[in-house]
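Memo to structure team: turn this sequence into structure tokens by end of day. - J.P.
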Amino acid sequence: MYGTDKYNLRKLSELPHHLIHSGNSKVLKKEVLCNLQWLDTKLRGTTLRLVLDDFNAACRSTLTLDLQTDMDVQYVRETLQLSQEGLRFHPNQLAGQLLAHIRTDQDKCGILSQARAPPKGSCLLP
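Reply from structure team:
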């Protein structure tokens, strides 16, 4: 009934917050917003709403304004928004949803190559 996975909830909530408020948008993008392992872990450990809140906070902050126009961040954000119903109940679909919604020529940050790597759990990949 209950999984054995343990998540560092403090790190999952605080790292994006501190990177946003430090204005370190490059690290925020690489280590959080366009990092499949981070997104998958946060999605499994918390909720999709909290994952989307990280994107919203990063794009609203005056310290990370460049992320408002960063297409990689916007593509991942839009994919999460479009896939809400599926991801809410089946977070293991994240890689497949990214592959289905983002074209190869749109991926500059490499999140699609991360999604194509062999998955840890069971999931369907297009």
